[in-house]
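Extended Data, record Peptidase M28 domain-containing protein
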Amino acid sequence: MVHLNSFNDIALTNGSRAVMTGYVYSAQYVMETLKQHTNCDISTEEFETAIYTELSPPSLSLVEPWGMDFQLGVDYSGLRYGGNGTHHLTNRSLCIIPNGGCNQTDFPPDPNGCIALIQLLPSNDCPLINKAINAEQAKAAAVIFYNHINRTALITSRVRGAGWFPGEPLLTIPALAASYSLGSTLSALSSARVDLQANTKIQIVSSFNVFCETKEGNASNLIVAGAHLDSVPEGPGINDNGSGSASLLEIVVQWYGLGLVPVNRIRFAWWGSEEVGLIGSRNYVRGLTPGELGNIAMNLNFDMLGSPNYYIGVHDGSTAVKAQQGSSVITTMFEEYFNYSEVNYILIDLIAGSDFLPFIEADIPAGGLAAGAGSIKGVEDRALFGGFANAAYDPCYHQFCDTIDNINTEALGSMASAAAYVIQKASQTADLRAFLQAPLTVHPHQTQSSCEIE
């Protein structure tokens, strides 16, 4: 808990451990601890990231053919990266955009400052950013995306390319999400005119990843074991993800304290800017040469290991979009530890939501652990792990109360021990790549969704 207490102090001093607040101090703490207790090669990797801030809540109201104020969070909401600047749009007409807005020809040639109204289609016809940029280039004043008839929740997507990189487009005009009820009503009113206000900011800032690489071990069988070090701006992020970062840091300290020497080289990684779209890990993977990518045998990821109303979650490699075989073997390594320790666990998907994703997309086997975020615990998990059914696994997920008091030390101890076991086993496996391709039996556990972790 020493490292977690240090992260907590950093967050209390700086407001959070986000990219623009306490992240740098968290990284400095990690590097100073590594210098004091290890002889690994410590390095950083800088990158640029786009930071979005909603300076004040948006507003949307109907002024013609009658007056009506719509309800924020129910009828509509702002979209992350949906605009840059202060916009006061009054008495604007609506342009009803057909075909999802994926083509520039969907937009009128002379929009005259209208607000583009686009219905989202059930299929992912094209990325949201493409639609929004088409609207901006067509000289629309703003864009409203409303649900298709079968969707009830407002979308929460980022209006930005996945894993934004410098040079990729960012939106200037406001972008809002709207319910099907609101969107269909507005589209049916031929004379509808609305007021829309938005006040947002997008800044391009520098951040960095931190690495600690063992000097020993086969560099052609590299194990990248990582955890994201940043928090959201709204809170200290002690569970998300001080728990994973602190566990990884202590594993490294204990590794060197015990004098362990790996057969396969390990690169321990503390990722930056995970909370704004896995930017640090995406930048790392994208920046590798084909040869450097080929040297990575596997990735391990540890994100939220101390959730107060926890489950013990092992990522299920069979759900990965690529590298299923090797990822499934990694799953069995964690299962081996929990079965031997007689600790209950469940399998959770390996699809999205954390820093394993860029490795999976690069066809590199990956796996890891998580203890649950903001979704609701069912009676089945209560029977396995105790706690409270019909309550969030982490009721302080992405909130100001994610402090040192938000950690379940029993869960954290089990998770950190499992992480240490798998890291050590992988590092000592002489023919690691052959091991990762070994035949497997079918998992007896049912896999649950965990895509909300990010």
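Summary. The domain at 54-201 is CATH 3.50.30.30 (Glucose Oxidase; domain 1).
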